[in-house]
Design goal:
Blueprint (H helix, E strand, L loop, with lengths): L2 H5 L6 H7 L8 H14 L4 H14 L5 H5 L3 H9 L7 H21 L2 H7 L5 H11 L5 H10 L12 H8 L3 H8 L1
């Protein structure tokens, strides 16, 4: 069983995330953008810290409304830098805003972030990492891999012996559809 599958169940923050979100397919732009921003902010910190600050992130980034965040200017940046409820890292804040702008452009071409992901699937993790580095800011190997694992594009969020695995399998995540085609 994966380490997360062993430690998360029953934990007040990890448990609900593990049981209801981690590895499940995600389609909505706001939910995908939230997961990307949270993964970027986790860099150098524990996932528990991010989960504990999640409500503050949602409030600070206007519910992860892509268009609203893409329109942020100097005033909103300054407000984010003063918000003790989130991770106040200038590079991560700048990446969130710039990535929202890039998602607006992606939606113009593909209709949605989910459609863009689907258009590039399947790919091996190194190919995804290259694509994300070309497309987004602050998305190295760990961030990209964790993001894709968390939204069902890469295999391994749960082991087959984890009770959550069967629930995810019923939703037929992208990684599972790609494996069936091989």
């Amino acid at each position: 069983m994966s380490a997360y599958c062993r430690i998360a169940p029953g934990h007040p923050f990890h448990g609900p995330y593990h049981d209801r979100e981690y590895g499940f397919p995600v389609r909505g732009d706001g939910a995908l953008f939230e997961r990307l921003v949270l993964e970027i902010n986790q860099a150098g910190l524990s996932w528990l810290t991010i989960l504990q600050k999640r409500a503050a992130f949602v409030a600070a980034y206007d519910g992860f409304d892509v268009d609203r965040v893409a329109a942020y200017g100097a005033r909103e940046r300054a407000c984010l830098m003063r918000d003790a409820g989130i991770v106040r890292n200038r590079l991560k804040i700048e990446a969130a805003i710039e990535n929202a702008r890039r998602l607006v452009a992606i939606r113009e071409q593909h209709g949605s972030f989910a459609a863009w992901l689907a258009a590039h699937h399947p790919r091996a993790k190194p190919e995804w990492v290259r694509l994300f580095k070309q497309t987004f800011r602050f998305t190295g190997g760990e961030i990209t891999g964790s993001f894709l694992l968390s939204i069902g594009y890469l295999e391994g969020a749960h082991t087959p012996s984890c009770p959550v695995f069967a629930r995810i399998a019923r939703r037929n995540p992208p990684w599972m559809r790609a494996a069936a085609r091989r």
